[in-house]
Amino acid sequence: MKLFSALIIGAIFGIGIAISGMANPAKVLNFFDFAGSWDPSLLFVMGGALVTTAIGYQIVFRSQSKSLLGAPFSIQVKNVIDARLLMGSASFGVGWGIAGFCPGGAIPALGLGYSQTYIFVVALVAGIAFARTVSNRALKTA
Asked: Range of 120's domain?
């Protein structure tokens, strides 16, 4: 049941990404081009997602302590802004601005068959592996 739920949720997310244009790197890059052909439509996509999520969290967390499948909610409680958070946020933003893909938009875009999407996902996985290696080594020496 958990695997089926993940498949349905992933499909809904992927369809939303495709409909919103977040799987199109040209549209995303135009969103970041304030001095040129700025396209503010993704601002509405992100704003709509933020409002929907905020309302959904309030409803779900007030009414139940576990998910519909019985698993406990896992909520991040760390609220410290540290170097790791800043570096991760900066690399995410720079990568998104350069490539026109965010990880959430790239995975559904794999189904479109564009080579640039595959290159991005391979680079994404390599970057994750590199970051984990560096992080693990730093923890061992500390």
From this structure: 2-141
